[in-house]
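Form 7-S
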Amino acid sequence: MTKQLHYGTTAKVFHWLIVAMLCVQYPLGWFMPEIHRGAKPSDALMFHVSLGITILALIVLRLLWRITHPVAPERSLPAWQQLISEAVHWLLYALVLTTTMTGWLLTSEHGWSISLFFAVPLPMLTSQGSHLASSIGKWHGIMEWALLSLVGAHVAAAISGCCRRTP
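Output:
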């Protein structure tokens, strides 16, 4: 499989769709009222979950696209920066996947039935009050901050790269 020199249109569309959705998802999650056992899910929470499931689907598609359409590392970078760049990209995929999955698990653990954008029912991933899901809320929060931090590093590296390439 030949590696492309640049990301194609499909990869860029996946990237920017996910970025746009995360820009909505983070504030929505932060400004929701406290979620606790026995609480009834609000429309904002259900929209947050629906958006998360959509992000999950897009990141899976993006990951499959990336595997089948690999991109060569930037040749102008030293080997150590190429390695870090590749590692950050794969870690971003992993964090988006795990953050969205823990959100879905957390919703299931609360016993809330989920409908994708209030229309398509989704399966529960675990039973209400399961031992597996008891600490998922903490992990979801930790992963959201880890993802946000890594996105910040990714943006800083991209800006640094853009500034370095200008004549």
